[in-house]
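fyi for ur records
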Amino acid sequence: MSSLSVLLVIHNEEKQLKSCLNTINFANEIIIVLDKCNDNSREIAKKFTKNIFSGSWEIEGERRNFGLDKCNSEWILEIDADERVSSKLKYEILNVIKKSKFSWHMINVNNFLGNKIIQHGWGAYFGKSSYAGLFRKGCKIWGKQRVHPKIKMIGINGPRLTERLDHFYCKSVSDLFIKLNSYSSARAKDMDDSVLKESLVINIRRLFSRFWKCYILRKGYKEKKIGFVIALVASLYPILSYLKNTIELDD
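which gave:
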């Protein structure tokens, strides 16, 4: 019989951790990695699992790979504390790992802003329409970046799951801009580590190309004002990262 580990890598998630954990108690084991947590996350986690590991990481990919190494089951479901597994998705996951001959499966995502599902416009590192969330142990490797690490998948991709994961991405429009500030600061540091050279001109072009992709190609216009805001945030991300790298970090 196939076994399943669920992995959560978190930093100070006491406000939403319990709600997440209540939806994944069907797993054979729950692995929780606490990264620089100084809130009540550990006490909440202890009510659901004994598999709790603490540490301090600067690189997102490294802390996620650490968590994957701690998983003992044949299959791994990787989620975040702001995500919820519905009962329908639960049964689909259990059915897939029982029958699948593949190495990994994509999971579709419902992105929420507050309590409203925003279906269109996500992308360019803000929100996610789907992700490689269900995979066999050893088939997923995270890259060594601070934000939005590159992912290497090993093996054969299976059919995309039908049911969707609920992702409570932001509580408000203000949260989108808070994420923009945090993500761009982390990417500015990643740019120091990269051998690839970027320029102001390239990032000005990305302003327009990313807005076009999110607002037009990904149909953000269907979400009206919030679709415009999502496209704006996505388009500002690369140039803000570049400016933080070339101005703030060189001072």
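The first strand starts at residue 4 and ends at 10. thats all i got for now
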